[in-house]
Amino acid sequence: MAIDVGIIMGSQSDWATMKEAATILDDLGIRYETKIVSAHRTPDRLWTYGKTAAERGLKVIIAGAGGAAHLPGMMASKTRIPVIGVPVQTRALSGVDSLYSIVQMPKGFPVATMAIGAAGAANAGLMAAGILAITDAALAARLDAWRDALSASIPEEPSDD
Ligand code: RP5
User: Fold this and answer.
1) Which segments of the protein form a coiled coil according to its record (predicted)?
2) What is the pLDDT of residues 27-60, one digit of tens each?
3) Cα 34 vs. chain centroid, distance in angstroms?
4) How far is the CA of 158 from the centre of ligand 1 (A)?
């Protein structure tokens, strides 16, 4: 079976955050791979990944990085496959550095940038699901059910517990 989504990250230390995207894809039955691909430490790996992503059949790439977070943008420069960027929260600047590094792409090479940290990674999984659901009715039904379940879990009134 073909892999639809590539989850890539700049470092092993990003995995705790990027796992949130993987969990969503697991919940929705979406096939994915996970790779460490660093714009600065493994630039050749980045190049090869971007160059072969379309021919390998990937449909969406989720890219997370922190600090000088060039991975999502560089990947978007190398492949036409939609790239969803996740700014990983950093200790020094709380992830604002990551966010600014990812979001301010020049015209021509977009990155769909999520929120900083775990919520952004989970939303990246949901965004990938939404893109894939356009052409996959069964996935669309699973995604609708996931959204309905989340809505149903929200109480109507606050409690002291
Ligand atoms: C970035 O530098 C990575 O994406 C990571 O968020 C950050 C720190 O990496 P480590 O020093 O923890 O490997 O390239």
Assistant:
1) none
2) 999 999 999 999 999 999 999 999 999 999 999 9
3) 11
4) 39
- Please state, in angstroms and rounded to a whole number, the distance separating the CA atoms of residues 79 and 57: 12
Please give the model's pTM, rounded to 2 decimal places.
0.97
Task: Give the architecture-level CATH label for domain 5-152.
Answer: 3-Layer(aba) Sandwich (3.40)
**Residue 14 is labelled as binding a ligand:** yes
User: Cα separations (Å) of 25 from 5, 35, 38?
Assistant: 9, 15, 22
To the nearest 10°, report the CA torsion of 28, 33, 34, 37.
-140
Distance of CA 143 to the CA centre of its chain: 16
Bridge-based pairing state of the strands 60-66 and 112-113 = unpaired
What is the reported pLDDT for 115?
Answer: 98
CA of 99 to the centre of ligand 1 (A): 14
Residue at token pair 């021509």: 108
Residue-range domain boundaries for the chain:
5-152
In angstroms, rounded to a whole number, what is the distance separating the alpha carbons of residues 44 and 133?
32
CB 65 less than 6 A from any atom of ligand 1:
yes
Per-residue pLDDT reduced to its tens digit, 64-91: 999 999 999 999 999 999 999 999 999 9
DSSP 12: G
